[in-house]
Every structure is written in structure tokens, then in C-alpha cells.
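Narrative of activities, Objective 1.

The group set out to show that a structural description can be obtained from nothing but a protein's sequence at a throughput compatible with the screening campaign. Below is one input-output pair from the validation batch, recorded exactly as produced.
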Amino acid sequence: MKKLAHPALQIGIAAIGGIVFGLLVGDWAANLKFIGDLFIRLIQMSIVPLVMSSVIVATGSMSGTGTGKIAFRTFKWMIGFSFVAAVTAWALSILIQPGAGMVYTQELDPSLKESAGEALGWQDTLLNFVSTNIFDAMSTATMVPIIVFSLLFGIALRSHINKTGDSGVLSFIDQIQQIVLTMIRLVMLIAPIGVFCLLAALAGDVGFSVVTTALKYLGTTLLGVVIIFALFVVVVSVLTRLSPWKLPNKLAEQTAIAITTTSSAVTFPTVLKNTVEKVGVSQKVANFTLSIGLTMGSYGAVLNYMIVVMFLAQAGGIDLSVGQIALGMGLAILLNMGTITVPGGFPVVAMFLATSLGLPFEAVGLLIAVDWFAGIFRTFLNVNGDTFVAMLVANADDEIDRDVYNGTKTVTAEEIDLDEYRDVMARADQAD
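Output recorded for this entry:
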């Protein structure tokens, strides 16, 4: 009975039950849709205060530490691979069309189709990034201007703290963030009911294609993970000139923990230990690169987030403009880099992306239902990607011991104080 208490298992059971119920009763299941819509609205209402507080706290907390060559190389590789992950997700989504099977009998909001079809010039696009009235942007959940305002507010707050030493405002906003997070946790208690009703209505409307669509979405994500992982191996092998055939044994332990726990935070101590003791990366580089990578090296998350954007657009029959695709990639990368961390798990991330790009929400329930499987794929790439980046950074500074990598020398990693990493470990779990 204890296992049934796990939220992911509850949602999984509710998802299967909802699909079966919807297939059995057909159109009648539409009567349950309002309950699912209520669940979605409860998440939506938290997005604006959560994003604002998260951005302000993240930006206002920056102290300017971690500069230098190691930092530059770390961020260079992280941003580069994040961009590749976003482009790969877009390309695979175009080829496989994971959301194309979702055909709705109900009409979408005409304004969504109209706004999605309008390709603004780059000047107007940039101009619309800044709102003349932040409260108006908040009332309509126009996310990009909200993010810009919050970034500027956070920078100004950091400057104020540096001048006065008074961090009272930062602490206050941090408390708001924690309260909104508690709200989301309360809402997620009814997630199984919401998902059941959403998928029952969806299955009753579109029939068995809801199952095949879920498999296409997961298959697209898995294929993307395989491609990015292979690219990592090729780049690391070419630049470090280390044998790629020895990598599976070195990554096996952390991979096993990652895919069984779907948690980068839980896997972090093992990753740090193995990167030093099995791969040969110096303790100095491993400490910095892996701790940064814990929250800013979530390449699996970037890949998955961009697939979500394309899935929702395809499910709603919306053709995204070049500008919207670029914005989707940018948001996926920024979510990964921690600039606009959206705590609260995948449902909030999916709703945030849909809201930011004006996409329909009908298929979000399906994505939530299979997110445990997608989480396995994300965490696998997140965890091993951090080790690969550490190898690339260490190689550039000759901080990788080839004898350790080749197994002819033994070293022991330093003991780590997990309390020091508590905050970043908590944030890392949101990306998984």
C-alpha cells in the first residue's frame, strides 16, 4: 500500500483509468472535462507569481562568484549543448509529428490560431518583450514581458543589496516563492483526479489515437536523448582522445541510480564521486562544474521542453512562426540555465510554455500522465551530460588524469557536505 502513495504512481494509475473509461463511455466522458479544466486553472493561477518570484530571487541572489576560465568553459559547453538539444527536439518533432494525432472535435479559441499565424517583424517582436504596464501583462499572463521585468527588478535588487547590505526585500520575495510552491503542492494532491478527468474526456473525444500519440511523444523524446548522448560521446572522445569504449562501465552506476530515482539530486553524490575516481577529473573542476551542472546542465529537460512546445502546437493544429519557434527554444534553454526556474514540476513547466507561446492546453493532461517515463529519459541525459561537460572542461586545463581513466591509477574523491548543495539539489529535481 505504501507504493500507491507515490504521486507518479497515482497519476499513472489515474491516467490509465481515465483512458480506459473514456474509450468505454465515449462522448459522455466530456461531462468530466470541467473537473480537468479546474485542475488546469488551479495550476495556471500560480504561474505568474511563481515565475516572477523565482526570477527575482534567482537574479537577486547572484553574488558574482564563480568567474574565471573554468566558469567560462563550463557555461560555454552548457549553453552550446543546450542549443543543440533544442534544435534536435525541433527537428525530430517536425519529422515525427508526435502531436499530430490529436484531432479535437471542439473548436480552438480563434484568437490562438490568429496570433500563432502572425509573424511579427523582429523589431516588433523585441518591442513586445517590454510591457508599458506590468500589471496588464500579469493580468493576461503575457510571460515574456513579465520575465524581462523580473530580471531587471532582480538586477536592481542585487545592486541595492550590494550598496545597503539590506536583503529584506529579497527574503520577502523568497518567502512568497515558497508560499506559492506550497500552493502548487496542495493543487498537485488532486492531480490524479484532474488527470483522470482530462484523459477520460480526451479519450472519449479522439478515441484510441490518444494511446498512439503518447507513444509517439515518448518515442520522440527517447530518440532525441539517444542522439544527444551519442553526440556527447563523439565530442568528448575526439577532444579528449580517451577511449569511448570505457565510458559505459564508468557511467553504469550513476545511470542506474538516475533512471530508477528520476532525480539528479539523489544521483549527484555518486556522479561527483565517479567523475573523480573513475573518470579522472580533478576535484577542483568536478566540484565547480558538477554543482553548476546540477541545475544548469539539464540537457534532457531542454530537449523535452522543446518537444512539449511542438507537441502542443501540433495537437492544436497551429503552425508556429519562426519567431515563436526561436522563442520556444530560448525559453527551454533559459528554463534549463536556471534564469527563469519554474519550480513545481512538469505540469507547471508545460503550462508555462503553453501560456508563453499562446498554445492550447487540451493535451497537457496526456503529457502529465506519461511524464514519469519522460522523466527517466530527461534524468539519464541530465546526469551523464554533466559528467561529459566536466571532462571537456578538465581536458582544456589538463585537469583530467588519464591514468585514472584508463584504470592504472586509483584516487579517492573528497567527502562532500550535502548541506552545501541542498538548494541546488532541490532545484535540480524540478528539471527532472
